[in-house]
Structure formats: structure tokens, C-alpha cells
Design a protein that fits this description.
The structure holds 3 protein chains of 3 kinds. Chain A contains 16 helices and 9 strands. Chain A has helices at 15-21, 26-40, 47-56, 72-78, 85-91, 106-119, 148-157, 166-171, 206-219, 232-235, 246-251, 261-264, 283-286, 310-313, 329-365, 374-380, and strands spanning 61-66, 94-97, 124-129, 132-133, 142-143, 146-147, 159-165, 184-185, 196-199. The chains are: A alpha/beta, B alpha+beta, C mainly alpha. Bound molecules: protoporphyrin IX containing FE (2 copies), NI-FE oxidized active center (NFV), iron/sulfur cluster (2 copies), FE3-S4 cluster and magnesium ion (MG). Residues 43, 500-502, 556 of chain B line the site of magnesium ion.
Chain lengths: 381, 556, 243
């Protein structure tokens, strides 16, 4: 991971040499590169390019800022998926600043960061987890006596690439949800003059971060991004369109309550509020924690954690529709709708009856008007 | 004698944003201030939400102890709505929470705490044969060969040779406070790396029951992961076997790597058994209900309170005696700064009154932290592994007494040594061993129940908000890796009306209360605490890290 | 009045034989076709849509042996496609069709329309029965409700295609409707409106059918049949607001 593994990188060594030194065969290395090409969706034709790029790579400096967050994203990354391959990829970098893991503290820590920024100005990769609180002059997060915003702006200025890891850095996440007491925003709200890659999710799957870094090292640019700045190779498809339970959805086979017979058969979780149909994420394909499972695999619907605004948009989590008005419409919409429909029909019927009575009274009061013959009317058809 | 103001900000190798300020005098700490510098307002964000969603919101309080807020929240909602979960769900939650403890404590020891005691650079001078000899003498772990340690050392040498030190840059290497011989340093570095692979493996237990880690999924009323031995999509024999193997690997690592390393390192730092004690009051709400959470007597680790280091008496715990103060915190209360509020009446109204950035010294301010100050019966309380082990020890818990006595014996110190920085770190190891062993019992029971045809994991009574009373309130509590945690919820018309959390790190990192009583971090730093070189404050890191701070938790 | 060199239709013949009535062609076939296509599709969309929203019926056994939700969605999307086709035709007809089909007849554009709207409402509330303004095409209440319905269907189309496009973000539908999610503040909000507005459509149907039916029975002027036959008989002596 982001610690010198038991096989650290040596100055001047290419990845190929490095791997050999680690006892990794050329064949394994090629397999790894092929795997990465697959994860990135660049096709096997690109494998040689990945191989070449990684073989020339020297450890680029990575500075990781941790702002207003829960550290879940850091924890996710240290559980990176592939037991050996994840390690290899992450050995490719030099993690020069990260609160959770670094040995230095206080002034020494800040000094380490400034040194790395100076030595690699314009060349380092900036990872950011956590959001930036803007209310109250940013006093809701200070580090070393300075606001989160100052730290971010300073680090972003010299970065070659900026990767916002996780929902907090992406759009502000839970802190930015109703009523957003601290005025939290994501990285791209602050850094406007550079491309910010958003690795969506709360937290994201580690492999997504890994693969994005490999992409940058291999191609010298960030991967293709969707409308929300998320890499297409990971967020290009909905959970729903890749879900192992999809056949049950199409068949009309649904879990109604957790642990009911349908749940014990592993049927579709749509009716328990699964947000897979509205969520772009690679969970069913990459899976979590060394491809062990993913939320739907464990019998719970997706809560949409890779989507902007999901705490307000995708809640209540166990309803299919959001609680827009804030008083439980989503649960009662069909009840209310049906009741009004019945009411309207009854109203119409009542109106018809009232009209009849009204008409009869009027008719009695008014002189008789000549009516067209019934037979003729029939002819008009 | 002149006092020197010292600031350590950021404190690294913790969760979150912590600033420590002290006044140093004659190589000792005369006074200390602990300030958490991040606020998010999650309690406020909870209001108006569906109580069944609460677990997911509160879970985001912390991604390190990613299970505990979710479970505390489930318990609060289940308490408010009087929902009783099936026995299997209780066992599964124990397994998930148990693995949380084990993984969290091991990571803490190797990746957050070890570098306070282990000099990575010194490991370069080690004789790998010596390391292997030491390792073999303390543990049967298969990797304990000379070749293995030599390999690790060679790579470490190359790494240092590149000049790109990464996360090891600017460490306080060579500080005279480092006491381990190079051979033990090398041992620890090797296991630092091994632990990283290990934690990634065993945490998959969360993924099986909750779909992912961090932030596995839960559900009010039980667990979402159905059990069906004949389905590929559920908890089946294959999944149970995988879990069994993980528990085995976890036990082996804890007993053959973590505990031996802990004892080996501690043996060189015995003076730290007289440093960093602190408040002397300890609180635990107990944990791991083995029948139902309402049955406090069934907890694997007992509930209780110790006041003034008195191991002769364990007081009962009553949550009505919990109050939070904001005297020194950036909040305001309707009744002013002298008032303490029980969490059911709690308020989270942020009001920053500190200086503008850049900050010089917060110690000059009357309010200096985003952390509130919880007090039990008006007393500051230390929570965490040490509190749990002390209460269990004093309550006569067999397993705990056996293990604590063994560790004290191996280190050649008496029970008084527990009230210290070293005691805290040792207690964490002791409970890890006890819990990881107990996990086997829970799994056995789960398998037994399934064998006898009970596969229920969820109760749907009270699932529908239509079955709820118009108003309800509930208290959910548990002991998390870092200590006693409480969630208090009020539900009105199917929505959350109020939500308050009092968290382990809130107790431990609390600032001064109206009576001027300091919190446990501050008390520990003032307790006969050395600080030799203000520019390299490694002693502060040792004691603060011994609490395993989590600021995101504490403030939320 | 229609002028035709062709032999008189039955309707014209009947009109000629009953001098107190005249026959007016209101809706030519494209309008009638689009009306009935839309009507059938809207009912279909509502039924399948509600199943999609809350799939009460479930199947059991091999998933591959069933396709209940699959069919519901397939039919929903097919009907959606037809509605869009019909809407395009109707929009074309708003300009190419006669005055009664014109967009002017759908929007209360003139002040007179608003005054008449009030009068019509009073008429239906049986407050001032005799003063109801007479229209050949839509009276103001109908104008108003049809305009509302068109807007509703438009929102359905937009939100529907917004959701539909998500299954293939590389595709044309997503390219066209990808903005819908963000515009609604998240695709779930779009889903919410898609669902809730369906109920409004449901409420519209009985009122609409009743009004059409009522006009037929009450005024004996073939308001209802006009949507089948294309025209209606009206008393020769009545002056219509929209004539
Ligand atoms: C017995 C059944 C029905 C009769 C007699 C009837 C009659 C009419 C008439 C005369 C118009 C005015 C034509 C126009 O300006 O276009 C109209 C318009 C309309 N009807 Fe119906 N209708 C019936 C059923 C339905 C149903 C079931 C629906 C859909 C749910 C529906 C939807 C509409 C809509 C959307 C319009 C405005 C369309 C337009 O102006 O092209 N109708 N209907
Ligand atoms: C006017 C008519 C329409 C009505 C009454 C209607 C009704 C509905 C309803 C009630 C739902 C369920 C919503 C939920 O709870 O998630 C639904 C879903 C949907 N509708 Fe419509 N709809 C209409 C038109 C359209 C159109 C024009 C499209 C365009 C493609 C469309 C596409 C969809 C899609 C994609 C879904 C979600 C299906 C899924 O999640 O698998 N609808 N519709
Ligand atoms: N609750 C909780 Fe915590 C805290 N403090 C716990 O173990 O860390 Ni993130
Ligand atoms: S995105 Fe989620 S997991 Fe990551 S830091 Fe934010 S709250 Fe934690
Ligand atoms: S479980 Fe969720 S994502 Fe999977 S098919 Fe069902 S609704 Fe779609
Ligand atoms: S909740 Fe998040 S982790 Fe995946 S399955 Fe859904 S995107
Ligand atoms: Mg609180």
C-alpha cells in the first residue's frame, strides 16, 4: 500500500526491475498489466502501452490531503482489492503526505508536505479526501491553525493531477446534506481551473483509485470522465444493469421484506428500496474487499452512495421514491393518489346526478323545447 | 522557571483533526489543552429523517470504527420502537463488531501507535539472526526466520537509499526516547507490513454480512443477510466456512504476532507504566450481549464504573447521570455555559468564538475545541480498552483476570501499572485476544442454531412506520473499540425529532468543564508527563496515541 | 360547414334533412387517430407504470422462465414511443390542422377566453346555468385542462426518457436526455414527479370522459361522438364563440 511494502522501490529502478526484485515473474507482470487494461476498459490492445509506461515509471510524489471527513476513504484504500497486484500498483508512488499513516506530526508533518510540494512542483498527484467547509470563514475545519480551504488551494496550485477520493471530496457528502450546517462543498467547487477527477462513493472501492492512478501514469492524462467528473471505466454503467439479481427483476421476482422467502432465494431488492436503478457504480463487477461481495450481494439494497446528493435524493433508503416534501409523501403517494382518484370519480358521479336533478327541475319550470327525434339521432352514427 | 508553549497540530496517525497544546516546564508538561478542530453537524443533519435510515447516517461519523455508530443507532431505534431482533442477528452483529475490534486494535498497534516506540531507521542496523532468535523465543509464527527478516531489512535499506522516504519522512528517528534494540525494531517493522495484508483479509467478514467495508450495510430489526444453506446468494455453508477461516487467521495473528510483539516492546518501556494515567475514573457500558441487548447480565464484557482508581468497587451505570457541557467548546446552550444537558435534552448549536486564522495559541482562549465535555455524575471519565479491562477485572471476570494477571506477571509490574500510557496500550491487546477467542463461540452458536433450523435474521414487526407510536424515545449504547458510546433518539410522527451522540472520543478528548476539571487526554498529559524536546514531541504522541483518538467520532 | 364536391356523406345528408341542425367537421382523421393512440397509450402507460412503481404481482421459480417486469417495461417503453410519435403528429397538426385543432384553441390566449373560463366554471357549478358560452371546439375549461394534460405528458416524456437513457450512457437517448437528472436535482426527483404526476393523469380521465359524455347527453350535440366521427351536429341557431 502507501507504505513502503516489504519490497520498496529503489531510485532508478523501473517497475519491471522492481517486480523482478520482488520475485514477480515477467509473466505475472504482464498479467497484471492486462488486468489493469481490463479494469480501465482500454482493451487488450493497450496492454503493451501500460507495460511500457509502468516500466518507465519512477515513483511520482503523491500528496494526500484529508479534510472534513470520516477517514473511511483512507481505510478503504488500505484494503485495496487484489492481494498482490494492489500492492504492486501502490508501490509505484511515493506517498509524501498522509495524516493517517505518516510518522511525523505537527510542524514536522507540515514541513514534510512543503518539501514534497517544492521538490515536485507542477508534478505531483494530489489526492483529497473530505470536503471543505465554507461557512463561518471556514472555521469548521482548521489544520495547523489554517483553514481547509487554504490547505486545498495551496496544494492544488502545484499539482499535476487532482483526484477527489470519495463522496466528501466529490460533492460534500453527508456534511453537505440538508441543512449543511457547515457549508461543506466538494473539491471542484474550490479548484475551478483544473480538472478534478471524482472517485465517487462513500467510500469508493479501492481498485477504482488504484486504476485511476495507473491510468494517469500510463497515459499521462486522466481517464475519460462522465458528466460528473467520474471515470467512465468505473462509473459508466448503472448497478442495475450489471446486477446479478437483474434476472429476478425482469422476471418480476422481488423481496418484500428482509429475510422473507424471496430474500432467502436471493431475489431482487427493488421493493426494499434498492437504488441500483439510479446509481452508476462498478460494485457488482469490481466487488468489495478482494472481490468478496457488495451490498446487494449481502442482501441489502444499494443506497446510491456514488451519486451526488444521495443522502437527500435516495432517502428514505427503504422507499423507492425520495422524500421530497419532507413529510412522508413517498410512502403514501399511491394511497393519496388512489383516494383522490376515487374522490374524483365519485365527484363526477355526484355531478352527473346533481345535473340530472337540476335539469329536471329546470325542465318543469321552463316551456318545453322541441327535441330532435330519437330515431334520427341514431342515424347520425 | 519559564514555561514554553508547545503546539502539536496536526497530531497524525489518528483519525481526524486534533491539536494538542501544552506548557512545558523543566522537561515536564505543566498544563495541557486538547482541541478538536473539525465540526460537521451530523446530529443536526439527522433531524427530519426516517429513523430506519439513521444507522447509515451515523455510520458516516467514522469510517475507522465503521460498525459501531451503525449498531448504536440500530439499538437506539430498536429501543425506541421496542423491536427485539432474532438471536441470529444478535450473534451476527457480535461477530461483525468483534471483528471491528480485532482489526481496529491491530491496525492501531502497528500502524498508528508503533512508530512512537519503534525506530524504523534503527532497524537497518539489526542482525536479522538476532531478530529471528527473539521472534522464535516469543512465538511460533511461521515467518520468524532469519532469511525472512534479512529480506525485509534488505528492502528497507534500499528504500531508505532512494532518499524518497514517503510516510517515514521527518519522523523523530534517533530520538533518545526510542529504547528498542535494532533487532526488535526490525521485528516490528516486518510485522507492520504483515499486518497490512492480514487486516485486509480478515475484515472481509464485514463484507460477507454487510456487503462492504468500510461502512457495511445494516438494517433495523436484524441483519439483511439472509441465511439459506441451499442458495448461492445468501449466507450458506461456503460463506460460513470462509468466516470460520477468517476467525482462525485472526486468532492466530493476534496470539502469535500482536500479543508477543506488544509484550516484547512493552518490556523495554516499563517506565511508561508510571506516566500518562489521567483522570482515574473509568466508565464502560459493557458489550457483546450474548442473549439480548436488554439483558445487561449477558454481556461478555461487563458494564460499570470505577472512580478514583478504586478497583475494590464497581459502581452501576445509569445513563441518566450523563451530561454534556459546552463551557470550553464552540457551542451555545439556552441556559448558558454553566449548564449541563442530558442527551435527551441535548443541543448542538455551533458558535465559533475562537481567533481568526492563522492561529497562535488556543490555550489563551476560554473556549478552544469543537469537542463537548461529557461528565458522569459531574466527573470526567476515561473510556476505552483500559476502562473495560479494569471494570471486568474488578468485577471478577475470569478471562480478563487471567489474562491481565499473566501480562502483569510477564512484565513484572503490579496492577497499579495499568493506570498509565502503557496500561492503556496493554489493555487494548488483552481485550483483542479475549474478543477474538470469543468470536469462535459466537460463530459456533450461530452454526448450531442454523443446524437446528433457525435461520431467522430479521423481524418485520414494527418495520412499517404505521405501527409506530406518534412519539417515542430510545437510547442505544455499546462499547466501541475506543470506549463507551451512546446514541439518544427522539422520534415524532415517524421522523427523527432529535438525535444526540456522546462518543468515546468525546469523553476522552473533552475540554475543561465549568468546575475546571480537565478531560482524560489533558489529565494524562499533566500526569507526571515528560516532554524533553519541544521540537520533537514524541512523548506527547505516545500518550495521546495510547487513547487511539478519533476526532471525527468525538465531534461528529 | 363543409363544402365538398364529393357525394354527401351520411352526416351531411342527415344535416340536410334536419334543417334545425347543421353538421360541423371539427376533428379530421389525424387528430382522431392521435387522440385514440394517445388515449390507449396513456392508459397503458399508467397501468404498466404503476406495476413498475410497485410490482405487487411476483413470480416464482426459475427467473429465466418469467419476464413479468420485463414485459411491463417493454410495453411501457413501446407505448412511450407511440405517445411521442402521436405528440409529434399532434404538434404538427396544431399548425397544419384546422382552427379547432390549432394551438390557439388549446391555450387560453384571449382575454375573452379567461372571462369565458370563469363563466364555464360557473356553469358547471350550476351557479349560472344559462350563461354558459357555447364553443364548437374546446370550451375554456377544456382548453385549460387539455393544456395542462399536454404539459403533464411532456413532463412524463422528459422524465421518462431521462430515466430510460440511464441504461446506456453512451447512447443517443442519454445524450438527449442526460440533463434531466441534474435539472431535477437528481434522477430520483425526476422519478418522483414521473410517479406522482401519473396520479394527476388518472384523475383527469374520469373528468374528461364525463365531460365529453355529458355534453353528448345533455346538449344532444354529439360532443362525444365527435372524437369518433370527426364532427358534431349543432343547432343551426346557436352562435359559437369560436366559430
Ligand atoms: C369515451 C372516451 C373519450 C371521449 C369521448 C373523448 C373525447 C375527446 C374530445 C372531443 C377531445 C377534444 C379533441 C382535441 O382537441 O384534441 C379530447 C381530447 C383529449 N382526450 Fe379524450 N376522449 C375520450 C377518452 C380519452 C381518454 C381515455 C384519454 C386519456 C387518458 C383521453 C385523452 C385526451 C387528451 C390528452 C385530449 C387532448 C388531446 C388533443 O387535443 O389532441 N381521452 N377527447
Ligand atoms: C404519460 C404517460 C406515462 C405515465 C402515466 C407513466 C407512468 C409511470 C409510472 C407510474 C412509473 C413508475 C415510477 C416509479 O415509481 O418508479 C413509470 C416508470 C417509468 N417510465 Fe413512465 N410513464 C409515462 C410515460 C413515460 C414515457 C414517455 C417514458 C419514456 C421512455 C417513460 C419511461 C419510464 C421509465 C424509464 C420508468 C422507470 C422504469 C424502471 O425503473 O425500470 N414513461 N412510468
Ligand atoms: N464510537 C466510536 Fe469511534 C470513537 N471515539 C470508536 O471506537 O472511532 Ni472512529
Ligand atoms: S466519502 Fe464517506 S467514507 Fe469517505 S470520508 Fe466521506 S463519509 Fe467517510
Ligand atoms: S437488486 Fe437492485 S440493482 Fe439489482 S436488479 Fe434488483 S433493483 Fe436492480
Ligand atoms: S450503496 Fe454504494 S457501495 Fe455500491 S452497491 Fe450502492 S454504490
Ligand atoms: Mg454529540
Amino acid at each position: 500500500m502507501f507504505y513502503p511494502s516489504s519490497h520498496p522501490w529503489v531510485e532508478g529502478e523501473t517497475l519491471g526491475e522492481h517486480l523482478e526484485d520482488r520475485g514477480v515473474s515477467r509473466r505475472d507482470f504482464l498479467a497484471f498489466c492486462a488486468e489493469m487494461s481490463a479494469v480501465l476498459g482500454v482493451g487488450s490492445a493497450m496492454t503493451p502501452k501500460v507495460v511500457e509506461a509502468l516500466q518507465q515509471a519512477r515513483r511520482p510524489s503523491v500528496i494526500w490531503l484529508q479534510l472534513q471527513e470520516c477517514t473511511g476513504c483512507v481505510e478503504s484504500v488500505i484494503r485495496t482489492g487484489e492481494p498482490t497486484i494492489g500492492d504492486l500498483v501502490l508501490d509505484v508512488i511515493s506517498l509524501d503526505f498522509n495524516h493517517t499513516l505518516m510518522a511525523a506530526a505537527g510542524e514536522a508533518a507540515e514541513a514534510a508536505k512543503h518539501t514534497a510540494m517544492e521538490e515536485n512542483r507542477g508534478g505531483y498527484v494530489l489526492l483529497v479526501t473530505g470536503s471543505v467547509p465554507l461557512e463561518n470563514d471556514g472555521m469548521y475545519l482548521t489544520i495547523a491553525g489554517r483553514t481547509a480551504r487554504e490547505h486545498l488551494e495551496e496544494a492544488a496550485a502545484g499539482a499535476a493531477h487532482i483526484i477527489a477520493v470519495g463522496a466528501c471530496a466529490h460533492w460534500g457528502n453527508i456534511q453537505a446534506s440538508r441543512p449543511n450546517p457547515t457549508g461543506a462543498v466538494g473539491v471542484s467547487e474550490i479548484v475551478r481551473n483544473k480538472t478534478v477527477v471524482n472517485i465517487a462513493g462513500c467510500p469508493p472501492i479501492a481498485d477504482t483509485v488504484t486504476a485511476t492512478i495507473v491510468h494517469i501514469l500510463t497515459f499521462g492524462r486522466v481517464p475519460a470522465l462522465d458528466r460528473d467528473g467520474r471515470p467512465m471505466f468505473a462509473y459508466g454503467k448503472r448497478i442495475h444493469d450489471q446486477c446479478p439479481r437483474r434476472a429476478h427483476f425482469d422476471a418480476g421476482q422481488f423481496v418484500e421484506h428482509f429475510d422473507d422467502e424471496a430474500a432467502r432465494q436471493g431475489l431482487c431488492l427493488y421493493r426494499t428500496g434498492c437504488k441500483g436503478p439510479a446509481t452508476f457504480s462498478p460494485c457488482p463487477i469490481f466487488q468489495w474487499n478482494t472481490r468478496t461481495s457488495f451490498p446487494i450481494g449481502a442482501g441489502h439494497g444499494c443506497i446510491g452512495c456514488t451519486e451526488r446528493g444521495f443522502w437527500d435524493q435516495m432517502t428514505p433508503f427503504y422507499e423507492r421514491l425520495p422524500d421530497l416534501a419532507g413529510f412522508g409523501v413517498e410512502r403514501r403517494v399511491d394511497m393519496i393518489g388512489g383516494a383522490v382518484a376515487v374522490g374524483v370519480t365519485a365527484g363526477v358521479a355526484a355531478h352527473a346526478v346533481a345535473t340530472g336533478i337540476h335539469r329536471t327541475r329546470q325542465r318543469k319550470a321552463l316551456p318545453v323545447v322541441e327535441q330532435p327525434a330519437a330515431g334520427k339521432e341514431h342515424d347520425r352514427g | 522557571m519559564a514555561r514554553t508553549k508547545v503546539v502539536v497540530d496536526p497530531i497524525t496517525r489518528i483519525e481526524g483533526h486534533l491539536r494538542i497544546e501544552v506548557q512545558q516546564e523543566n522537561g515536564r508538561i505543566a498544563d495541557a489543552w486538547a482541541s478538536s478542530t473539525q465540526f460537521r453537524g451530523i446530529e443536526l443533519i439527522m433531524e427530519g429523517r426516517d429513523p430506519r435510515d439513521a444507522w447509515a447516517f451515523t455510520q458516516r461519523i467514522c469510517g475507522v470504527c465503521t460498525v459501531v455508530h451503525a449498531v448504536a443507532s440500530l439499538r437506539a431505534v430498536e429501543d425506541a420502537l421496542d423491536i427485539r431482533i432474532p438471536a441470529n442477528a444478535n450473534l451476527i452483529r457480535n461477530l461483525v463488531h468483534g471483528m471491528q475490534f480485532v482489526q481496529d486494535h491491530v491496525i492501531h498497534f502497528y500502524h498508528l501507535h508503533a512508530l512512537d516506540w519503534v525506530d524504523v531507521v534503527s532497524a537497518l542496523q539489526a542482525d536479522p539472526a538476532g531478530t529471528a532468535r527473539i521472534a522464535k523465543s516469543i512465538s511460533p509464527w511461521p515467518n520468524n526466520s532469519e532469511t525472512y527478516f534479512r529480506e525485509v531489512q534488505d528492502r528497507l535499506k534500499k528504500f531508505v537509499g532512494t532518499g524518497q522516504l514517503g510516510i517515514f519522512a521527518n519522523g523523530y528517528w534517533g530520538h533518545p526516547a526510542y529504547k528498542l534494540p535494532p533487532e526488535v525494531n526490525l521485528l516490528a517493522v516486518a510485522h507492520y507490513l504483515e499486518a497490512l495484508d492480514w487486516q485486509r483479509d480478515v475484515i472481509r467478514l464485514h463484507t460477507i454480512f454487510g456487503g462492504k467495508n468500510p461502512h457495511p450495510h445494516f438494517v433495523v430489526g436484524g441483519m439483511a443477510s439472509a441465511i439459506n444453506l441451499d442458495s448461492t446468494a445468501t449466507i450458506n455453508a461456503e460463506r460460513l466456512t470462509d468466516i470460520q477461516d477468517m476467525i482462525k487467521r485472526a486468532r492466530r495473528f493476534v496470539h502469535e504476532v500482536y500479543i508477543p510483539d506488544l509484550l516484547a516492546v512493552a518490556g523495554f518501556y516499563k517506565e511508561w507504566a508510571a506516566i500518562g494515567g489521567g483522570t482515574g475514573n473509568y466508565l464502560t457500558v459493557g458489550e457483546f450481549p450474548e442473549t439480548d441487548v436488554r439483558d445487561v447480565g449477558s454481556y461478555f464484557l461487563p458494564q460499570g464504573i470505577i472512580v478514583g482508581k478504586n478497583l475494590g468497587e464497581v459502581l452501576p451505570y445509569d445513563h441518566q447521570k450523563v451530561k454534556e457541557y459546552v463551557t470550553s467548546s464552540w457551542y451555545e446552550y439556552p441556559g448558558g455555559d454553566g449548564e449541563g444537558l442530558h442527551p435527551y435534552a441535548g443541543e448542538t448549536k455551533a458558535k465559533y468564538t475562537g481567533p481568526p486564522t492563522p492561529w497562535q495559541y488556543l490555550q489563551d482562549e476560554s473556549k478552544y475545541s469543537w469537542m463537548k465535555s461529557p461528565r458522569y455524575d459531574e466527573m470526567p471519565m476515561e473510556v476505552g480498552p483500559l476502562a473495560r479491562m479494569l471494570v471486568a477485572y474488578a468485577s471478577g471476570h475470569d478471562g480478563v483476570q487471567g489474562m491481565v494477571n499473566e501480562v502483569l506477571g510477564r512484565l513484572g509490574v503490579g496492577p497499579a501499572a495499568l493506570f498509565s500510557t502503557l496500561g492503556r496500550t496493554a489493555a487494548r491487546g488483552i481485550e483483542t485476544a479475549l474478543i477474538v477467542d470469543r468470536m469462535q463461540t459466537w460463530l459456533d452458536e450461530l452454526v448450531d442454531r442454523v443446524r437446528n433450523g433457525d435461520t431467522a435474521t430479521f423481524t418485520r414487526d414494527k418495520w412499517s412506520p404505521d405501527t409506530w407510536p406518534a412519539e417515542a424515545e430510545g437510547y442505544g449504547y455499546l462499547d466501541a473499540p475506543r470506549g463507551a458510546l451512546g446514541h439518544w433518539i427522539k422520534i415524532r410522527d415517524g421522523k427523527i425529532a432529535k438525535y444526540q451522540c456522546v462518543v468515546p472520543s468525546t469523553w476522552n478528548c473533552s475540554p475543561r468543564d465549568p468546575q475546571g476539571q480537565v478531560g482524560p487526554y489533558e489529565a494524562a498529559l499533566k500526569d507526571n508527563h515528560p516532554l524533553v524536546d519541544p521540537a520533537r514531541p514524541i512523548e506527547i504522541l505516545r500518550t495521546i496515541h495510547s487513547f487511539d483518538p478519533c476526532m471525527a467520532c468525538g465531534v461528529h | 360547414m363543409t363544402t365538398s364536391t364529393k357525394p354527401p356523406t351520411i352526416a351531411e345528408a342527415v344535416a340536410a334533412a334536419t334543417p334545425e341542425y347543421r353538421w360541423v367537421l371539427l376533428w379530421r382523421w389525424p387528430l382522431r387517430v392521435t387522440h385514440w393512440l394517445s388515449a390507449i397509450c396513456i392508459v397503458t402507460l399508467t397501468v404498466t407504470g404503476f406495476y413498475i412503481g410497485k410490482p405487487y404481482f411476483t413470480t416464482w421459480g426459475e427467473a429465466s422462465a418469467h419476464y413479468l417486469m420485463g414485459w411491463a417495461r417493454f410495453i411501457h417503453f413501446t407505448a412511450a414511443g407511440i405517445v411521442v410519435g402521436a405528440a409529434i403528429l399532434r404538434i404538427y397538426w396544431m399548425f397544419a390542422g384546422g382552427r379547432y385543432a390549432s394551438w390557439r384553441a388549446l391555450l387560453p390566449v384571449k382575454t375573452k377566453d379567461w372571462v369565458n373560463l370563469l363563466k364555464t366554471v360557473q356553469y358547471y357549478m350550476m351557479v349560472k346555468q344559462e350563461e354558459a358560452p357555447r364553443y364548437l371546439g374546446h370550451h375554456p375549461l377544456q382548453q385549460f385542462s387539455y393544456t395542462a394534460i399536454y404539459t403533464l405528458v411532456l413532463i412524463h416524456v422528459v422524465t421518462g426518457f431521462g430515466m430510460y437513457g440511464m441504461s446506456n450512457p453512451g447512447g443517443a437517448i442519454y445524450a438527449l436526455f442526460g440533463w434531466v437528472g441534474p435539472a431535477f436535482g437528481g434522477i430520483q426527483n425526476a422519478r418522483f414527479w414521473h410517479h406522482v404526476l401519473t396520479w394527476v393523469l388518472v384523475w383527469f380521465i374520469p373528468v374528461h370522459v364525463y365531460l365529453a359524455f355529458r355534453a353528448d347527453v345533455m346538449d344532444r350535440e354529439g360532443e362525444m361522438s365527435s372524437i369518433f366521427s370527426g364532427g358534431r351536429f349543432v343547432r343551426a341557431d346557436v352562435k359559437f364563440e369560436d366559430e
